[in-house]
Amino acid sequence: MKRRAALGRAAVVICSLFLLSRCGPERPRPEHAVLGAKLTLRGFQEVKDFDVFTADLADDSGGFSSGYRTRNVLFVESSGAARWLLSDNDHAVVEYRVSGPVASRVEEPPIVAVVALATPIDKDAKVGDLYLYDPPGRQVKLIAEGVTAVQGAALTSGGIATLYERPTGYVLAHYDAKALTRIREVDVAVPAIKLGGPTKR
Questions:
Q1: What pTM was computed for the model?
Q2: What does the domain layout of the chain look like in residue ranges?
Q3: What is the 3-state secondary structure (H, E, C) of the chain?
Q4: I need a labelling partner for 179 at 20 to 30 A (CA). Which of 11, 13, 44, 112 fits?
């Protein structure tokens, strides 16, 4: 009996060693201060026409169409040098890409700039900061504070136009497409309309 028990223990040890040699220990996560247990880099892709790559620092909070929430954006040069869009991971970032003119029906339109709304992930936070940056993230401008929502951004003959909302109302702003400097910014005077159902004849 003792011999059988000893053989059984030996078999368990051998099987364990075999599994460890096959699978190895769990791969360690990078020990960066900005990467927590539930944060990871996703969506790695090349920035067209630039020798730069981007990746989203995301969490697995769920409830989003992509299944995760972007907390920051990492830009990686071909040299390996990297930089963050924000200085922390305490914001939810939503990007609005500004497309340029289409050269042909086959090619996708180039991205000339990106408008991003960064809102603190605090449940009580209702306003955030609005950023405008070029595709490789080499120029990043804080263009507005206290923003509740972005309705969109587009490239026009007068530059980059974006319509965003503050607690006081809507704002239409134009920026130079190359320097990303503000050209003008105006409050939108939304006319009043009648509320209710269809008018009776």
A1: 0.75
A2: 39-187
A3: CHHHHHHHHHHHHHHHHHHHHHHCCCCCCCCCCCCCCCEEEEEEEEECCCCEEEEEEEECCCCCCCCCEEEEEEEEECCCCEEECCCCCCEEEEEEEEECCCCCCCCCCCEEEEEEEEEECCCCCCCEEEEEECCCCCCEEEEEEEECEEEEEEEECCEEEEEEEECCEEEEEEECCCCCCEEEEEECCCCCCCCCCCCCC
A4: 44
